[in-house]
Amino acid sequence: MSDNILEMRHITKTFPGVRALSDVNFAVRRGEIHCLVGENGAGKSTLMKVLSGLYPHSDFEGEIIFNGKKKEFNGIHDSEEAGIGIIYQELALVPDMTVYENIMLGHEIRRGMTIDVQEMIHKAEELLRRVRLSINPSAKVKDLGIGKQQLVVIAKVLSRNVSLLILDEPTAALNEDDCDNLLNILRILKTQGVTSIMISHKLKEVLSIAETITVLRDGQTICTLDRQKDEVTEQILIKHMVGRSIENIYPPRTSTHAEEAVLEVKDWSAYDAKLGRKVLNNVNFHVCKGEIVGLSGLVGSGRTELARSLFGNPDGYIVSGDMVFKGKKQRFTHPRHAIRSGLAYATEDRKRNGLILIKSIQENISLANLQGVSKNGVINEELDKQNALNFVNSLSIKTPSISQLVMNLSGGNQQKVSVAKWLFVGPEMLIFDEPTRGIDVGAKYEIYTIMNDLVAKGMSILMISSELPEILGMSDRIYVVANGTITGELDAKSATQEAVMRLATQY
Amino acid sequence: MNELMTVLKKNVREYGMYIALAAIIAVFTILSHGVFISSRNIANLLNQTGYIAVLAVGMTLVIVIRHIDLSVGFLSGFLGAIAAISLTQWHWPVWLSILFVLGLGICAGLLTALPVAGLGIPAFVASLAGWLIYRGALMLVTAATGTIIIPNESFNALGNGYIPDLFASNSFLPGIHKTTLVLGLIATIVFIFGQIADRKRKMQYKFEVLSTGLFVAKLVFMAIILGFISWILAGYNGMSWTVVIMLAVVLVYDFITRRTVIGRHIYAVGGNPEAAELSGISVRNITFTVFGSMGFLAALSGILFAARLKSATPQAGTLFEMDAIAAAYIGGVSASGGIGSISGSLIGALVYMSLMNGMNLLGTDISLQYVIRGLVLLLAVIFDVITRKRKL
């Protein structure tokens, strides 16, 4: 038997009414990089929460053997003590504190009654070196890019002397450069004797880094693949994850678009008075009726700023330039004007500013168009429910009823609620910011199919995406944004990932 | 029986308040040897609850959109004094001074909202400024005269009067207010039919509903409660105008929050202001609306309180805002926004005022009363947080 740092045996964890994990076996060899993949809701995060002690050992069945000893963790503190460090999707940093304060948070070095700042900075520098991050430890975290923040989190976890590092979708919010960098750091940490478990939806990244891959589906271990023995490709992984093989990741499109432009933007610039800088500079582009236009660019390039400045400018940028929407010159001053004119915007972060998580599916779907289900300001409950039900059926949103709170839905189903909300407005154009972020392969395919149906009916979509394959697979035309301006326009048929990347890094 | 337990467990938060209210009533009834539940005391209790419940309704919406309004206590006192002055010194007719004061209330609310919605100043600070200003204003307008006695009978009826008995009769049920009984009966019938229609609609859309047996049991239970309350009220002078006004406010606001576009918008802004803004809702306008309504209700509360005391005093309104906030929290409003019901805040106000009323009856020392009120508030919020966590 090989040397396993971790073995989880026969883990079964049930929530009221749901069996989240059933008899899962999971083993990790010492010193390897092990990836855990599966659709949303497959049980990956639950399994890691069991391991971290977030669910105390009395709450589940099965046993955990770490470093050859049976462990019973009763909280994160216990697992941390044993040498397990977890990094969650949401970065647990205090933005207004400095890098070193964040790294040493909760483990401050004291000298007598006071904090030994010098020693802490020294220790932080050492940890930052381990993750190859050359920044001033006294810089504020909020001034760092998200990629660097991610590395600070890793440094923070390393300060606890971990031998097993768990990363829950660490690259979800990162651009490609930062992703590559992060993966490199994991390889370097491996040489320093740190074992890593990484949960990820990005299969390319999994294939580039993993030595072993475990696939979970519906709370069960489907298989564990050893890269040295087994042949592993993206297709094979997807097949294991969804239990069926998806031949094409992108559904074929049959419709063609018109030549007539629905949106035309000329010399569009925006100045952010709060940041004191131009976020958009002379942007020119157009979108035709029935067309999917991809808007690509690195995080922070100005993609989302462009969308928001067109959609009623909720951030209060000082805007100049022309926007012609449906043949009329427009300058929306509130999202409601944009919505009324037929422009919709599905935000990039549906949990933060897209949906009202504590409200029901029904209430979320009609939120942007309550006039459609009311008369004289009084809501017709019947109509509202029927409408929600229609969308639940037509978009196949998986839920026991429309009274279900949105926070209880999976990522893919939440995204469908968001789509339903905007479809009910009946827009002529939808700006779709990161349509498939954080949702699984099966749900992605469904979202793509919905998008194709919409453009076939004459709607136009401006799709903002960080995923290059998605941009290439779904768009008719592609615009690339860098540094607040459009650096190039490509035809999707002839474009390559490299060509897009070149434009995106052009300054 | 099994279903009853699961339903109770599932909705422990909502039912918890009713159970707490029932427990408080039972305890005080026993300790006071039945005086607490007497017709006279219940009528008195409801009249006391009126001016706090009205404030609590407004405060609930303010808290739902993640703000707070500390100014409403002294605003209510100040506007009560304005009503008294307009009646006694300017000799305005009652209707005019009431309309005037309600209008002033709305303006005051909008004024509080101005720095909040316009500049993003925390409502705590903006309304603390209002608290100081209205306190000063109240002292100023009552400085010359001291307490202003209001001699106007029809104004004072709002706080002390009872609805006339249209079916007065000395032979049938003497000493019982028949109109109150009839109103109670009508309310019960409307309630039952409303519930049945609601259940039908829910079943049509595959919502979870109670089994028929339990549903009937619930209806019978509620009918008995409504009947009992109207019987008790009918045993004294019947329904007071304060109770009529309080119920009207509760019903109107309950309708607005649950059935109208503006209600949905308010809860959306509370649940996620950014998402609401990007869904085309003007967070600014909603903030103005909610604070405007709060000012309106503060004015109404001031009128009710002045009418009840038949005078305006320099101390009127002291700590009303805290009572209203406590009632709203006991009623289950969530400080993180987006959650809280009007019916909940009515029950919260009843729980809070029952405590005060009951302890006064028993002659509990005032210092101990404050401690107990604080503990009950704390317990209610702890209970709320725990039950909410378990649901997730």
Automatic annotation (TrEMBL), chain A:
Top-level division of the source organism's lineage: Bacteria
Natural source organism: uncultured spirochete
Signal peptide, first to last residue: none
Pfam families linked to this entry: ABC_tran
Membrane topology category: Peripheral membrane protein
PANTHER family found in the cross-reference section: CARBOHYDRATE TRANSPORT ATP-BINDING PROTEIN MG119-RELATED (PTHR43790), XYLOSE IMPORT ATP-BINDING PROTEIN XYLG (PTHR43790:SF1)
InterPro entries per UniProt: AAA+_ATPase, ABC_carbohydrate_import_ATPase, ABC_transporter-like_ATP-bd, ABC_transporter-like_CS, P-loop_NTPase
SUPFAM superfamilies reported in the protein's UniProt record: P-loop containing nucleoside triphosphate hydrolases (SSF52540)
Occurrences of domain ABC transporter (ranges): 6-243, 263-503
GO cellular component, as recorded: plasma membrane
Protein name (record): Fused D-xylose transporter subunits of ABC superfamily: ATP-binding components
Compartments (UniProt record): Cell membrane
Lineage per the UniProt record: Bacteria, Pseudomonadati, Spirochaetota, Spirochaetia, Spirochaetales
UniProtKB keywords: ATP-binding, Cell membrane, Membrane, Nucleotide-binding, Repeat, Sugar transport, Translocase, Transport
Gene Ontology molecular function, alphabetical: ATP binding; ATP hydrolysis activity
Primary location group: membrane
PROSITE patterns: ABC_TRANSPORTER_1, ABC_TRANSPORTER_2
Automatic annotation (TrEMBL), chain B:
GO CC terms in record: plasma membrane
Subcellular location(s) of the protein: Cell membrane
Domain of life the protein comes from: Bacteria
Topological type in the membrane: Multi-pass membrane protein
Transmembrane segments: 15-36, 48-65, 72-92, 98-125, 132-150, 179-197, 209-233, 239-256, 286-307, 327-355, 367-386
Keyword Cell membrane: yes
InterPro entries: ABC_transp_permease
Pfam families xrefs: BPD_transp_2
MF GO annotations: transmembrane transporter activity
CDD domains reported in the protein's UniProt record: TM_PBP1_transp_AraH_like
The entry's keywords: Cell inner membrane, Cell membrane, Membrane, Sugar transport, Transmembrane, Transmembrane helix, Transport
Primary location recorded for the protein, binned into one broad class: membrane
PANTHER family reported for this sequence: ABC TRANSPORTER PERMEASE PROTEIN YPHD-RELATED-RELATED, XYLOSE TRANSPORT SYSTEM PERMEASE PROTEIN XYLH
Role noted for this protein: Part of the binding-protein-dependent transport system for D-xylose. Probably responsible for the translocation of the substrate across the membrane.
Name of the protein in question: Xylose transport system permease protein XylH
